Structures are given as C-alpha cells and as structure tokens.
Amino acid sequence: MSTSVEPNAYSGWQSERSGFMGNLSGAGFTLMALAAVISVMPIYQRSWGAALICLPLAALLLLLAYGRVLGLSADEWIVLAVRHQIAVASSKNLFFSGVFAPRTKDGQQPMDLPGVLARLHILEAPDGLGGTLGIMHNPVDGTYTAICRVTFPGLALVDTEKQNHRVKAWAAYLRSQCKEGGAITRISVHQRSLPDDGAALRSWTERHTAPDAPAAAVQALDELMAGAGPTATIRETYLAVTLSSSRARLAVKGAGGGQVGAAAVLVREIHAMHGSLSSAGLQILEWLTPRGVAQAIRTAYDPEAQLALSARNTAAEDPQWKGAERGVDPALAGPAAAETGWGVYRHDGAWTVSYQVRGFPRSDVYATFLQPLLRPRQNARRSLSLVYEPIGPAKARQELAREKTKRDTARRLRAKTGRVESEDERREAMMARAQDVARASGHGVVRLTALLAVTVTDFDQLETACAELQADASDAGLELRRVWGAQDSAFAVAALPLGQGLPDRRVGI
Fold first, then answer.
1. Cα 261 to Cα 141: distance, rounded to the nearest angstrom
2. Strands 345-347 and 337-340
3. How far is CA 61 from CA 39, 54, 113, 485, in A?
C-alpha cells in the first residue's frame, strides 16, 4: 500500500508598509496637513470669497496626496516626472563610455558603469582553492558581493517528495542566515532566459567529432544541429551573496582589516554555505572571476556580445587555443552608450523595460508558480531577480510587533467610526498573526523584492515582448508595475546579477 505525497502550497507574503503616516508618504502627509489648514481658514475669516478659493485648493492638495497615477501616488509621480525632465534637460540621462571614458595617468581605462552602478568596483581576491574571485565592492554602502553561477535539477519533472524536500532545504538555507548580527546582509537569485543560435554548440560538436565517424551519422547530426540549434534557448542562473563590512566589523578586523579582511571573511562565509546549498539541490558551477563578473555585466548591456563570447569561451577550453582567456576585461564591462527614458532604457544595441513585482499571489500556490515568467521567447530575453534580506530574530520581533500594533490600532479606529472590516483586512490580520507564530516557533523572516526585465534588439518588438511578459506574469498570479522614471536603476537590479536593490527599511508612524 503506497501513500501519495501532496505538494506543499505557499502563501502569506506581506506587503511592506513604509508610509510616513499610514499609507501616506512624507510629502503626502504634508499635502494633507496643508489641505486641512487651508480648508478651515474660511471659517475663521467668515468669508464666502475665501471659501471659493480655499476649498478648491484644499481639494487639489487632497487629490495630490491620495490620487494614483500609473500605480504611484500623485505626489510621487510629480516628483519623478520633474526629476526626469531635469535630467533630460541637463543630459544626465545620457551615458557615454568607450572612447569617451576618461583614462588614468598610466593610460588605463577604468571600469565605467552608468547611474547607481558608477560607485561599484571589481576587486580580485583569492578563493582559498588556488583560484581568484571577483568581488563587487560598494564603498558607499560598505558591502562586498561574490557571485557564482549555479545549476539545479529543477522542480517540474521530479516527484512531489523531492520537490518538497528541495524547497524546504532552500528555506532552511535562508533561515540559517537569519541570525543576530549576521555578516550576510543580502542574498540574490538571478536567472536569464536567452535566445541561442547554437553557435557554441556547433563549435563544440565540430571539435569533438571523430575524423573516422560514419558519414551518415555526421550528416544526421548536421541536420539535427541545423534544425534545433537556432531555436534553442539557454538559461543562466546566478547566486549573489553580499557581506556588510559594518556588521562583520570584528571579523574583518581579525582577518587583516580593510578590503583584504572583508574579502577573506566573505570567502569564509561562502565556503560555509556549500553544504546547505547542495542540500537544496543547487550545484555551484563556478565562483565568478573578475573577468567572469565583467562578462555577466557586458552581456546584459550588449546582448549581441553573448554569442561571440560564448564561442570564444568554448574555444578557450580547447588546449590548442593557447593564450585565449574566458570572460571580459573589467574595463570593458559597461555599455558604450546608454539613454534613460521615462519608461524604457536603451543601452548599446538593445532596449529594456523593467518591472517591479508589487503583489504576489493572494491564493495558495505551488513551488513552480514562477515558471511561466521564463518561458522561451525568440524575440526577447528575460531576466528575473529575487533579492532577499535576512532579518535577525530581535529585529524581526520588533518589525512584526510594530506591524501588529498598526493593524490593531486601525481595526479599533474603524470599529469606533462604524466602518465594517473588509474580508481582505481580516485576512491580512490572520496572515500577520500566523507569521508571528511561525517566527516564535523558530522560523526566519526575510524581506523580499522581485524585479523582471525584458530586453529586445529590435525596437519594433518591444511592446509585443512587454505584453507577453505581463500576460505570463498574470498567469503566475503576480501584479507588475512598470518602473516609471527610474528604468536605469531598475535595470541594475532586474538585469544584472550583482545583488543590488532592496533599500533600507523605512519605518512610518
């Protein structure tokens, strides 16, 4: 007698409340306060003429505070629009590198990245196994990020028991990072879905075909390559681990201090993760070298370079090609030119539109619910970034207690005013309580954000590719919002495996 194992279902994502007062931003709260003051002025002046002026003005201020434009509050939309127009007028939305990049005194061309990435530097550090490791250093935030390329057996074609086990193992890995004063401040998973013309596969096949192979077999293989190669789609998956030098201050000091000490602590942390990652079914193919990190950046900005680099990397593995190096020179990692538009980002010979996931499914879903997002598409490449921030037990307790107090206060206020509690509000309160119970039982709490990007090399295909992505996101139960006015910053998170994104928690009152 055999017992069937039911697949686990997942739910309970809580939206982060970061308003200054309730759901209002600081600017929105100021507008509401001004509207309240202006609306009572005619009463004190006892003037109907003042009322004809003040009341419409107060209504306009309330509309700016509570109105919504393209998924944003009206005041946020106006700030973004004004900031974007100023950037366009001053040409700050344009970026030029390559021959236009400034050179150092020794004639070298440093790595030149646009926008929020300009502060980053690629450091080289020993990986403890005789090789080198490329580490992205952010001197402003004091963070160090190591990136590895991983592979995994997947979930769709395995039995339910293994599927549940792998998801639980990944959850256990995340939970292990939710420790008090942990050095790891951010974990990012990035996956790309890329069209492939099969050039690298053909190159490998030609070099590994025996000279005495039967002619019929060679012909059949050539026909198969000609038919299947151009329609192939490859996926690249990266895992980025970010260390905070301020959190690991004592460990960094004990390892020698400075960048050398921080790199040593990061290498020690990533070596300690191998066991838990293997339990989750993740196989680390390689930790990226500086040239590997530069290639991951370069191929995101210039999709057409993907095929040439893939063929060159395949050739570099052949002993006959002496002197060939894998990857890209870090000085050439960035784009030659880029332009930030209101709703699109143009870089080299491609256009990208980035989206933020504003809402995860409200109903229970299975572990494979994100699978539609990376369906093979020949007209576009897609990228998905999931950024996690582990929260220590003490901070998690404070955050959940604050959220619970907010909800309880809002419920009592609604009861006093006679407003009936909606089913959505009741469900949110139940999920918040269940989350607090799980935390008290030893589960970890993480902040999570997800961004998607779709990139095309033919501008006429852009809107079609965007519509297809939105349709697939709807099938997955996700609520997307186009990142208006900040496409360059969103590209740095959605299309690059550098572990960016997820700003500091903003606590309201």
1. 16
2. antiparallel
3. 10, 10, 40, 23
- The token pair at 130 is 């005789």
Q: Is the pLDDT of residue 321 over 60?
A: no
Question: How does pLDDT run across 343-376, given as a tens digit for each residue?
Answer: 999 998 899 999 999 888 878 888 888 888 877 7
| Angle made by CA atoms 185, 190, 192, in degrees to the nearest 5 | 170
Beta carbons of 455 and 351 less than 8 angstroms apart: yes
Count Cα atoms within 13 angstroms, Cβ side, for 278.
7
Task: Report how far residue 38's alpha carbon sits from residue 21's, in angstroms, rounded to the nearest whole number.
Answer: 20
pLDDT at 330: 87
> How many structural domains does the chain have?
2
CA distance 170 to 9: 15
Task: Answer whether residue 407 is part of any domain.
Answer: no
97 shares a domain with 76: no
The answer on pLDDT for 212 being more than 50 is yes
- Please answer whether residues 243 and 269 qualify as being in contact, where contact means their C-beta atoms are separated by less than 8 angstroms: yes
pLDDT band at 149 (very low <50, low <70, confident <90, very high): very high
Q: Round to whole Å and give the CA distance between 325 and 291.
A: 9
Together in a domain, 342 and 485: yes
Phi, psi of 113 (to 5 degrees): -115, 150
Largest CA distance in the chain: 103
Indicate the SS3 state at residue 20.
coil
**Predicted model pTM:** 0.82
Q: What letter would DSSP give residue 93? A: T
Q: How far is CA 236 from CA 61, 190, 241, 384, in A?
A: 48, 8, 17, 11
Quick one: CA dihedral 291, 316, 204, 206, positive or negative?
Answer: positive
Are 16 and 124 in the same domain? Answer: no
Residues 214 and 74 occupy one common structural domain:
no
How many whole angstroms separate alpha carbon 88 and alpha carbon 341? 9
Q: Where are the alpha helices (DSSP H) in 302-441?
A: 305-316, 393-417, 423-440
Angle, CA of 172, 174 and 177, to the nearest 5°:
110
Asked if 338 and 461 sit in the same domain, the reply is: yes
The answer to which of 314-328, 349-363, 391-405, 438-452 has the lowest mean pLDDT is: 314-328
Judge if 61 and 87 occupy the same domain.
yes
Q: What secondary structure letter does DSSP report for 75?
A: H
C-alpha closest to that of 316 among 327, 300, 305: 327
What is the C-alpha separation between 454 and 471, in angstroms, rounded? Answer: 13
Q: Could you list the residue range(s) of the whole structural domain that residue 30 is in? A: 8-92
Q: How far apart are CA 11 and CA 362, in angstroms?
A: 7
Question: Closest Cα partner for 347 from 307, 299, 311, 384?
Answer: 299
What's the CA dihedral at 96, 100, 106, 109 to 10 degrees?
40
Question: Are 32 and 120 in a shared domain?
Answer: no
